[in-house]
Design goal:
- The protein is an alpha/beta fold.
- The protein has two domains: 100 residues, no CATH class; 331 residues, 3-Layer(aba) Sandwich (Rossmann fold).
- The protein is 46% helix and 15% strand.
- The chain is built from 18 helices and 17 strands.
- The strands form five sheets. Strands 6, 9, 10, 11, 12, 13, 14 and 17 form an eight-stranded mixed β-sheet that branches.
- A hairpin with a 6-residue loop joins strand 4 and strand 5.
- Helix 1 runs antiparallel to helix 2, helix 5 packs antiparallel against helix 6 and helix 6 packs across helix 16.
- The protein is globular and about 65 Å long.
């Protein structure tokens, strides 16, 4: 039974009730108000946020396209709204306090236990893929196939090839990567340890998590630094922000704060906000701080001109399921297999929000993109990568999404296995910590650069108009 009176970092209560929909409406309205007051009023007036959020999260992107300053205003105002509205509730009197109160909670300081790897550091970029280990020419060929199929952007292939050509980068000498959500399937921890990097792990104080992470650390070559209280390893970001901030602040080396946390439902927003509060705190105390994020492709992004042109070329060719597009559109009153983009309207807006993931997931992921844009504009080193849809446990436990994943290949979408995704994303992180990405005029271009979207940006049909068909075609595969 869910906890109706949670503690730690919490959503605000209004009239004694907590509503994640009310929070989402208010934050989106606050983010839009400075550049799109009509859109802000529309978000505030929503009576069915679970359905309406799809429109308003798209508007958050579209309203920022006219200028760099418009996009940054949306990001800054959205973040400010979240920090003003979110609360901290102690476990003693249950009273709500401002989010900053989370750092006033004391306790025994965390100490560090270091697990030294016993393995030999890998000095070649090797990517697991469908039972094979790709390196050298084999990796180049697969990157070319992905680009040709529209699975990753050409800039993503170039970055991975650059890392492969500079194997000395893999150890990340001089850096300490703080992996928040160290046990996450999409996180870079395993790859970084294989390459001999210095990794700081933060995850919940659950023995099963730390037994597995200790085994990985001992098996590979890197050093794993772990927060410890007494005999317990780990730390709870929802309740222990003050101690975690003090502990990370005291670590040596150039710090990179990597955000890989995830939780279900409204808890995802709470954890994401705990991480963002930690980010703000550490920026005040560690001017050397860098940030790392993974963005989900099931969101709204502005995309390059050539992605729009390729999607429209495929639409015109009408191969595969597209041969039945006309009768399907007639039977569905135009809802099925709609164009991904209007022709020759640049940049294109790819809307791949999936209703089954819900508005809390969208808000948690969007605030990370807002923070990346804001921090990059402030001059901080930022690595944000769009990761492909991946068969993680958290996703495929939803039977509808599992079926959609099983049928996605019918539309030219590739669903990746975790080992492939997290190695590719770790390689992008290694690049960003060793070499600068090109400077772009607009934040949307920073997000689109080196994206590994799995094909969603370059397929002919909008994601939601193909979702139902993918589910039907994938049901048998999902059961298998």
């Amino acid at each position: 039974m869910p906890n109706t009176n949670p503690t730690g970092v919490v959503m605000p209560s209004v009239g004694g009730k907590v509503s994640s929909s009310a929070l989402g409406r208010a934050v989106v309205a606050d983010a839009l108000r400075g550049v799109d007051p009509v859109g802000a009023r529309g978000a505030e007036a929503s009576t069915d946020w679970r359905h309406d959020y799809l429109v308003h999260f798209r508007r958050l992107v579209e309203a920022g396209l006219p200028s760099r300053e418009a996009a940054l205003t949306i990001a800054r105002d959205g973040l400010a709204s979240l920090h003003e509205r979110m609360r901290y509730r102690s476990g003693t009197d249950g009273a709500e306090a401002p989010l900053s109160a989370a750092f006033a909670v004391g306790g025994e300081p965390l100490r560090t236990v270091t697990i030294a790897g016993r393995g030999k550091a890998e000095r070649e970029l090797v990517v697991p893929y469908r039972g094979r280990l790709l390196a050298g020419r084999e990796l180049d060929l697969q990157l070319e196939r992905w680009v040709s199929a529209g699975i990753i952007e050409p800039s993503c292939a170039r970055i991975v090839q650059t890392v492969a050509a500079n194997p000395g980068w893999l150890a990340l000498e001089g850096h300490r990567v703080v992996v928040l959500g160290a046990g996450a399937e999409m996180g870079p921890l395993r790859a970084l340890l294989r390459w001999g990097a210095d990794v700081v792990a933060v995850d919940l104080p659950r023995p099963a998590i730390w037994e597995r992470l200790q085994g990985l650390a001992q098996r590979y070559a890197g050093n794993l630094h772990v927060p410890v209280t007494g005999e317990d390893r780990g730390a709870d970001l929802l309740h222990d922000l003050g101690r975690v901030a003090d502990w990370i602040e005291g670590l040596d080396g150039r710090l990179v704060l990597g955000n890989y946390v995830y939780a279900d439902g409204a808890l995802n927003v709470r954890v994401a906000m705990a991480v963002d509060a930690l980010t703000v705190r550490l920026r005040q105390r560690r001017p050397d701080l860098g940030l790392a994020f993974l963005a989900t492709p099931t969101d709204v992004f502005a995309v390059p001109d050539d992605a729009v042109d390729e999607a429209n070329r495929r639409y015109a060719e009408a191969t595969g399921i597209g041969r039945f597009r006309r009768p399907l559109r007639v039977l569905s009153a135009g809802r099925l297999l709609t164009r991904n983009y209007p022709p020759e309207l640049y940049p294109g807006v790819n809307d791949s929000l999936v209703p089954q993931q819900g508005p809390n997931y969208a808000l948690a992921k969007r605030l990370q993109r807002w923070r990346a844009a804001e921090a990059r504009a402030a001059g901080l080193p930022v690595s944000l990568a769009v990761a492909p849809a991946t068969r993680t446990r958290s996703v495929v436990k939803n039977r509808l999404l599992a079926a959609a994943f099983a049928g996605a290949h019918r539309f030219g979408i590739e669903i990746f296995e975790p080992a492939t995704s997290n190695t590719l994303m770790a390689a992008l992180l290694v690049h960003d910590l060793n070499a600068e990405r090109p400077a772009h005029e607009h934040p949307w271009q920073d997000e689109a650069f080196a994206a590994a979207h799995g094909g969603l940006w370059r397929q002919p049909y909008s994601a939601r108009s193909a979702l139902g068909i993918a589910v039907l075609m994938g049901i048998g595969g999902a059961r298998g």
